[in-house]
Each structure stands twice: as C-alpha cells, then as structure tokens.
Q: What sequence folds into this?
C-alpha cells in the first residue's frame, strides 16, 4: 500500500489541453473520490495514474517513486473499469488468476488467493462460469475480485457502479466501502454521482474542466463549499441560489434581490455593503416560519420520508424539503425561513464563497 | 428490453378471454412453421441453381459421356480408372501441397498484416485500400501479371537479382517442377492474403481496447496480450476465414491455368485443372466429372472440420452481451 502524490499534473491530447495542473496528495490507506461533471477529466487523471495515458506535465508519485516513466505493469496498481473489462473467454476463476499466472506464481498460491477473494465477494459458486453467464452485479464483483487478488499498492475505480440499477448500486456502494475498511488499500474512485462521492469518500476531490475546485471531507464540502460550483454540485436537491445585493446598515444585514425581497443573514456574515452576491441556502435548511422569505408554491412532490416543495421567490425557483408533513397547495403563498447559520454567501462575479467575519 | 407495444399486447391478451384459435393460426405462430414458410423460396432457388448442376456432375461421373455423344451409365468404371491413374494421384498430391502450404502462408502473413494494420498508422484508410488491391484485381489479370513476372527471359525478379549480383542467369520459374510449384503457390498467397488480412482485421477491431488495458495492468507483455487475449478471442473468426481460404485454394483453377496449364510435366496440375483438361479439351466429360467429384470428400472434410471448430465456444454462449 502506498500514498499517491499528484503534482501539477497536466494533460493534453494533441494541442487540446484537458487537465490544467492538478495537485492532489493522497495518504496511504485513504479512500479518495474524484467527482465532477462529465468530461471534466476524471477518467483521464485516473488513467494517467494507472499509466494508460502519458503524463504531459508535472509528476505522479506512488509510494515515494516518481512513476511518469514507469511501465503500467511495474506500477503495481489494479483498476476496475466501468465496463468491467472481464476477459470473456476465461472463467471467473481464470479472470481472477490471470495476473498471478502471468507472474508465474505457484499454483497453490494462486488457488489460495483466488479462493480467498472469491470468499470475500461471495463468488465461490460462480468460479467456473464465464462472464457472459453472470448478472451485472456479479460481473462487477468479479472485476473487484480480479483487483483484490493482486493485492496492489493502489486500487483505481472508474465509475464501477454506473452500469448497475439503482438498488444494486446502493448495495455495492456499501460493499466497496466495507471492503476498503477491511483491506485498507489506498483507493481512488471516480464517479460523477455526488451521492456516491459523499457516502464513500474519506476525502472528495471535486473537479471541473480539468481543474480541482475543492478538496475536503464530504462534510467539509457540504458545510463549507468553496464556491458556487461546489455548492451546487454537492447536495441533493441542489442548493438554491438567489442573486442580490448585500445590504449592511449598522447591525442590520440582509441581501436584497432585484425585486426587493429581503433575504435574512446571520449577524456575522462577511461581505461589504453594496456587494453583488449570490445567496445560497440548501433545501433542507428551509423551514416554514412566521418571518422569512415569501414564496409561491409551484409543485409539491411527496417522496414518503420528505416532501419536496418547489416554489418561486421573486421569479427565482427555490426548492425546500420538509420531513414533517404540511398541507401545501400550488399557487399558495408560504414563508420560508432559512437556518441563518447555514446560509452561504458567494461573490457574484467570482463565485467564490464569502467567509463569515 | 421489452417494448411497450409488447407489454400492451400482453395486457390485452391477458384481459380478454382468448378466442379459440384455429389450427392454422396456431401453426402460423409456431416458430418452425413460419420459419419454414419463409425459407421456402430461398430453398427452391438453392435447389434449382445449386443442386441441379451438382447432381448433374455427379451423374456424369458415372457415365462415359464425351463431348458430342451422350454417354451410358458405366458404374464406377471412371473411378476405377482414376485409381490406377498416376497423373490423377499426382494432381491429388499437388492439390494437397498447394492448399496446405499456401494456406499456412496466407494465415501467417494475413494475421501479421492484420495486426500491423490494427496499430495506429498514418494514412490508415489508404493503406487498407492498397492491401485489398490484389483481391480486387480479377484473377486472370493478376495471373497474367505473374506470368510476366515469372517469364523465363524478362522476369523482373531475375533481372533484379542479376543487377544485385546474386545470380548470373535468369531463374527458370515455371519450367522446373519445384520452381513452378513454389511460383504458383507464391502467386496464390499474394492473391489470398487480402481476404485473410482484412477479415482478421475486422475481427481484431471487435476486441475491446479495455481488455488490453486490463491485461496491461495485470502485467501482460505485448506477446502475452497477443497470446492470451487476441488469439483466443480471434479463434472463431480465424476458423471461418481459414475454412473459406482452404476451400478457395483447394478449388483454385484460374491462376494455374494461366500460369502453367498444369505443367511442367503435370507438376502443377491440381484436381480442378486436371478435371477441366480431361473434360473440355480432352472431351472426356465423364472422366473429368469423376475427378471433380473426387474433390468432394476433401472439401466435405474441410467443412466438417470447420463446423466443429466453429461451434460456439462455451464462453460465447449464454446471457446478454457483455
Ligand atoms: N483520447 C482522447 N483524445 C482526445 N480527447 C480526449 C481523449 N480522451 C478524453 N478526451 C477529452 O478529455 C476530456 C476529459 O475526458 P475524461 O474521459 O477524462 O472525462 P470524465 O471526467 O471521465 O467524464 P465522464 O464522467 O463522462 O467519464 C473530455 O473533454 C474528452 O473529450
Ligand atoms: Mg470517465
């Protein structure tokens, strides 16, 4: 097992830059999730770590060794591919045994390691089957098994769950996390699903367009998003954003929207009077209150545990979720009261979060 | 995936009381009946255009027909004559030699070319088109070109070798038995490679890149990737291609007929050319037909071999696509 250091790494395909100087330090045993919208360069970064893509600039260090010019097979890394990439002409057993067979490991050791991995992943009854004879979830587990058998320095996962149905995805998510807690192998996991990122990661690396937007623990990203992008990406339903003007008069402090609606702020909020800001509040941090933001109900979506209420505040759509049950009617006026300490302020021009004073 | 229509149809059938079906509608819905019905026209065409000439040929083999005179049924006499005919046995030997040597070279070179073309190359499409050329050119045309290349006096190969200084007299390509055999085999290989190469290339391109990447990370060298990924995944296609290649080569006629007419002294006579020579210029239709019929067991065994080789391997069976 090893740490992975990504230092000022850049990548370009031909003259087309895709990754613009990424720095990530991943500690030994850590489970890091790379998350970001489609096309932001997650897979490319992962493939550079694996050695499947050349590194255009900067360096990648695995376990203290710069691997820029190290062949993939010498990097001692196992990767789980999105399409699993199981060898279709080999049985489950042979798929898992392949790397050891290539290395010339003794038969007894191969059998032992494969059986152990099969045991962990409940694949024992399937060992003699071919990949075609397996369900999607079983294939996914074989792909994991192939990685585990290797006992590598680092596990790489490229959206391993995206081909599974929603229920199985949740189950496998837990299984992978449990597996990591057991094996403690440094893992880098790529996904574009923020729920997956939040629930699995020790640390999340949030990327956009080949740049790291924020690195932190899931709750750090949730509680203290560094900018509008991070705030909007993490959390479901997404944070509500209301553009407006910061008004500061003595102790009185609020944001005023273009239509003159007053959005309350905590007394320690940062920013200067007259600054153009974006007022951010998560749906789960809104409650029904006597004083607050006046809103018009548009659509109500009960989901059982929570009720999602989509409303409008001065022409801007605002979502609120309630775990207690209220009777909402479309078209009716309600007042949404934000939890002041969870309100976020961002500078409108730069999108960067304005820290509390 | 089930189509919405199908679901709706199911729902309707489930809801309404199904009307008693006539035997006709039942029969029509049966997979086999309907399938058979659709195959009927094709089967009729096949019967007329394939089976009739074949049957006629087989029948001729049992007669003493000559050109201009309808023959009589003479049983196995033609075959008995062939049994004692040394030229016939030489032709059998030549055909087997020609087929096996040419097929091995076509396979090896074709696979090699396919692997090369599968790499990232500049002007890929252009090179692929060039590779196809020998196959696109009519056989007779390429045979005439080879005839010129192998000419006893004006051969470009002899000329080049003399210029380099390797030899001092032109090579007698088609006049000497061994040379002639090697020459016709070389011409056949040249002509047959594109088919093998392009088909195998198509097969190579169906192998997902991620398998190679997974194998690379698993520690496979490029030889091991070829040995453990490419080759096993290509076997079904290799089997098809090589069956066809063997059939084409075994029944080859044009190249030989243009280049050597079976000479020198029958050294390059194949069963096909001998059959033609006996039947048409020789006029012995019955005997020629018997030689052609004698090819059938060889062809049949080649087909059977590939039939069993082609049977879907276990890993290809079952379940949805990966
Ligand atoms: N071989 C390539 N040649 C040229 N451009 C490429 C190549 N591979 C990827 N790209 C480009 O690099 C960018 C990042 O691609 P990448 O596959 O890393 O995205 P991703 O974050 O993994 O997206 P997704 O979530 O959709 O998988 C994309 O704009 C893509 O078009
Ligand atoms: Mg990707």
A:
């Amino acid at each position: 097992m090893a740490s992975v250091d990504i230092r000022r790494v850049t990548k370009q395909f031909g003259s087309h830059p895709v990754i613009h100087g990424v720095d990530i330090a991943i500690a030994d045993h850590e489970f890091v999730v790379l998350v970001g919208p489609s096309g932001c360069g997650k897979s490319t970064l992962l493939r550079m770590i694996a050695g499947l893509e050349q590194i255009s600039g900067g360096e990648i260090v695995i376990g203290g060794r710069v691997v820029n010019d190290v062949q993939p097979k010498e990097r001692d890394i196992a990767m789980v591919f999105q399409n699993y990439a199981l060898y279709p002409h080999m049985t489950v057993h042979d798929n898992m045994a392949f790397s050891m067979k290539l290395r010339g490991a003794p038969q007894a050791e191969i059998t032992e390691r494969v059986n152990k991995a099969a045991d962990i992943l409940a694949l024992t009854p399937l060992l003699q089957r071919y990949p075609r004879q397996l369900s999607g979830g079983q294939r996914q587990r074989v792909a994991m098994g192939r990685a585990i058998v290797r006992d590598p320095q680092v596990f790489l996962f490229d959206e391993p769950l995206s081909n599974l149905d929603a229920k199985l995805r949740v189950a496998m998510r837990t299984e992978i996390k449990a597996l990591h807690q057991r094996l403690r192998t440094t893992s880098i996991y790529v996904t574009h699903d923020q729920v997956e990122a939040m629930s699995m990661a020790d640390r999340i690396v949030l990327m956009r367009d080949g740049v790291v937007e924020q690195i932190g623990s899931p709750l750090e990203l949730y509680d203290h998003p560094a900018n509008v992008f991070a705030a909007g990406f993490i959390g479901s339903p997404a944070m509500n954003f209301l553009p407006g003007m910061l008004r500061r008069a003595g102790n009185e402090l609020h944001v005023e929207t273009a239509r003159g609606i007053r959005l309350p702020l905590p007394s320690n909020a940062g920013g200067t009077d007259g600054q153009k800001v974006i007022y951010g509040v998560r749906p789960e941090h809104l409650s029904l209150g006597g004083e607050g933001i006046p809103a018009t109900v548009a659509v109500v979506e009960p989901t059982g545990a929570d009720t999602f209420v989509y409303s409008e505040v001065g022409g801007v759509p605002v979502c609120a979720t309630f775990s207690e049950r209220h009777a909402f009617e479309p078209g009716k006026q309600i007042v949404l009261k934000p939890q002041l300490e969870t309100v976020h302020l961002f500078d409108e021009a730069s999108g960067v979060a304005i820290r509390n004073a | 995936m089930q189509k919405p229509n199908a679901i709706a149809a199911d729902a309707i059938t489930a809801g309404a009381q199904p009307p008693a079906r006539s035997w006709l509608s039942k029969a029509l819905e049966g997979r086999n009946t309907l399938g058979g019905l659709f195959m009927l026209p094709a089967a009729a065409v096949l019967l007329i255009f394939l089976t009739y000439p074949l049957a006629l040929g087989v029948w001729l083999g049992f007669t003493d027909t000559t050109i201009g005179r309808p023959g009589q049924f003479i049983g196995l006499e033609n075959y008995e004559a062939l049994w004692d005919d040394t030229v016939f046995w030489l032709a059998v030997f030549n055909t087997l030699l020609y087929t096996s040597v040419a097929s091995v070279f076509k396979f090896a070179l074709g696979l090699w070319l396919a692997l090369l073309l599968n790499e990232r190359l500049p002007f890929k499409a252009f090179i692929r088109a060039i590779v196809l050329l020998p196959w696109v050119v009519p056989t007779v045309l390429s045979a005439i070109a080879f005839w010129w290349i192998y000419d006893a006096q004006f051969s470009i190969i002899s000329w080049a070798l003399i210029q380099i200084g390797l030899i001092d007299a032109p090579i007698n390509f088609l006049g000497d038995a061994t040379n002639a055999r090697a020459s016709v085999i070389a011409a056949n290989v040249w002509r047959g490679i594109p088919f093998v190469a392009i088909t195998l290339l198509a097969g190579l391109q169906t192998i997902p890149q991620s398998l190679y990447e997974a194998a690379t990370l698993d520690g496979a060298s490029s030889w091991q990737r070829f040995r453990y990924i490419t080759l096993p995944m290509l076997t079904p296609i290799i089997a098809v291609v090589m069956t066809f290649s063997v059939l084409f080569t075994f029944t080859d006629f044009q190249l030989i007929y243009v280049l050597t007419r079976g000479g020198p002294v029958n050294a390059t006579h194949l069963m096909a050319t001998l059959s033609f020579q006996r039947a048409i210029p020789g006029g012995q239709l019955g005997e020629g037909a018997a030689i052609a019929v004698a090819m059938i067991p060889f062809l049949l065994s080649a087909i059977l071999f590939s039939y069993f080789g082609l049977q879907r391997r276990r890993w290809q069976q079952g379940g949805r696509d990966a």
Notes: Chain A has eight helices and 19 strands. The mean pLDDT of chain A is 92. Helices of chain A lie at 42-50, 92-103, 107-120, 136-150, 166-183, 194-200, 218-223, 228-233.
